[in-house]
Write a structure and sequence with these properties.
Blueprint (H helix, E strand, L loop, with lengths): L1 H43 L3 E6 L3 E3 L4 E8 L3 E5 L6 E16 L2 E14 L3 E5 L3 E4 L2 E4 L3 E6 L32 H5 L2 H12 L29
Parallel strand pairs: 2-10
Antiparallel strand pairs: 1-3, 3-6, 4-8, 5-6, 7-10, 8-9
Length: about 230
């Protein structure tokens, strides 16, 4: 009777080891399938190559931003268009991004330029091209309308990507150094006006300290001698 009980225990122990091994193999298979499924999600996304501008109509004498964006692919040999009707102010500026939303991986690379039209009229930004996934992707041409600007208005390009931009003007105000009174008049008066605007509550420039005899004097201490 004792022998039978021991045999049952050994059989039960062997069954547990086998079940554990099967569970490990099952988890490994699920992990491999998960990685394969994630790769399929990424590969199923179609590659796209697009163009975007900060504005399609602009006053002469201003500049705008044009961006070429490749999505869901690794690109090589980017070929920008020939900007024959525009002056390239800056570029190319290259930026990349990678994100995951609801299990879908999205990546993109952006090539941006700042362009200033050379003259008024309607002009086209010619297509750009890039190699991705064994094929050549081409962006669409985009029309830009340039209108006269007799008043010389300066426009800031609209930033669609949300990056920080700031004005490179004078921190003292646009008319501080352009004011003829600064050079022809009294420059110290202009500086004093600026100081009052920036440092309210502080003593004015050139203030005089009170004379020493007008300051409160400390009373001398009397010595007390005990006999």
């Amino acid at each position: 009777m004792v022998t039978k009980v021991l045999f049952k225990k050994e059989v039960q122990r062997g069954w547990n080891v086998g079940a554990f091994g099967a569970m490990v193999r099952h988890l490994a298979l699920v992990s491999v399938m998960g990685f394969s499924w994630g790769g399929q999600i990424y590969s199923q996304q179609m590659a796209a190559f697009t163009i975007e501008v900060s504005t399609d109509s602009i006053l002469l004498g201003n500049y705008f931003e044009v961006t070429f964006t490749l999505q869901n692919a690794n690109g090589n040999n980017f070929e920008p268009p020939i900007f024959k009707d525009f002056q390239v102010m800056a570029g190319p500026n290259v930026s990349t991004s990678l994100s995951m939303t609801n299990g879908q991986v999205k990546q993109s690379v952006t090539y941006s330029y700042y362009l200033e039209p050379k003259d008024i009229g309607n002009y086209y930004i010619e297509p750009a091209s890039i190699e991705a996934d064994g094929q050549v992707l081409v962006s669409e041409p985009l029309e830009i309308m340039v209108v006269p600007n007799p008043e010389g208005i300066i426009q800031q390009p609209i930033n669609r990507r949300g990056t920080f931009k700031f004005d490179m003007g004078s921190p003292f105000g646009q008319d501080f150094f352009n004011n003829e009174d600064f050079f022809n008049g009294d420059p110290f008066q202009r500086i004093e006006e600026l100081r009052k605007q920036l440092f309210q509550g502080l003593p004015p420039l050139g203030f005089e300290l009170p004379a020493p005899d007008t300051l409160p004097q400390a009373k001398p201490k009397r010595k007390v001698y005990r006999m």
